[in-house]
Amino acid sequence: MALSPFDLSGKLALITGGGTGLGLGIAEAFIQAGARVVITGRREEVLQQACKQLGPEASCQVNDVADLESIPGMVQTVEQKHGPLDILVNNAGINLKKHTFEVTDAEFQAIIQTNLNGLFALTREVSKSMAKRQSGSIIMITSMAALYGLPLVSAYSASKSAVLGMTRVLASDLSPQGIRVNAIAPGFIQSPMLLKALETDPERKQKVLGRTPLGGFGQPSDIGLAAVFLASDAARFITGINLPVDGGNSIGF
């Protein structure tokens, strides 16, 4: 019997920011689909706790994607310890919620360094390795902030809009090498941080729910399952897209 086209057995995935939130949800979904995962992040304790939760198919590597000089060595270490990477999920990111007048140059640059510069440097290094095998899947995590003008997140929106544009260019550059590049734009996904933010702003909460046709908030597993699809052979003829997983928020009225 043929394996399901959604099956990721035998695949190795690197997931940045994999210790919590969306990254952890993606790691869980990948393992359920048969993959092994290596999660990265800045906090060793958080990563180790996540690995315990994920089980024996998960490993961790402490790394700050904003430290560009560390990235080639990190990729080399991961592949030496665990084997060639089949999948990269660029999930790590930081946000800043401030009015445009109050955002300093240093704050703006910090967002760009992590969300854009680090993402590009890691993608470049991993794709060099994938190109030798003429195979790979790279998934970017973009945002609703790349699709429309959310207030108070100018730096974050700039970074995610750039990632969206870069996804298309990288798909053009890398797909001839057998490397598919796609993005997922999460909607409002349930997390302690989101719930806390909306509890203090009931008007915004109602606005979010009111323009989400499916109602409610998404779960990290919803992003994880979309990532499994894009990483799998089921999406073998898909490259360069940005898939909103948002309950219809981006088309809601």
UniProtKB/TrEMBL annotation:
Record's keyword annotation contains Oxidoreductase: yes
Signal peptide as annotated in the record: none
CDD domains per the UniProt record, alphabetical: SDR_c
Top-rank lineage group of the source organism: Bacteria
A GO term for molecular function: oxidoreductase activity, acting on the CH-OH group of donors, NAD or NADP as acceptor
Residue ranges of the TM segments: 12-33, 138-158
Record-stated family: Belongs to the short-chain dehydrogenases/reductases (SDR) family.
Protein name: Nodulation protein
Organism per entry: Adhaeribacter pallidiroseus
Taxonomy of the source species: Bacteria, Pseudomonadati, Bacteroidota, Cytophagia, Cytophagales
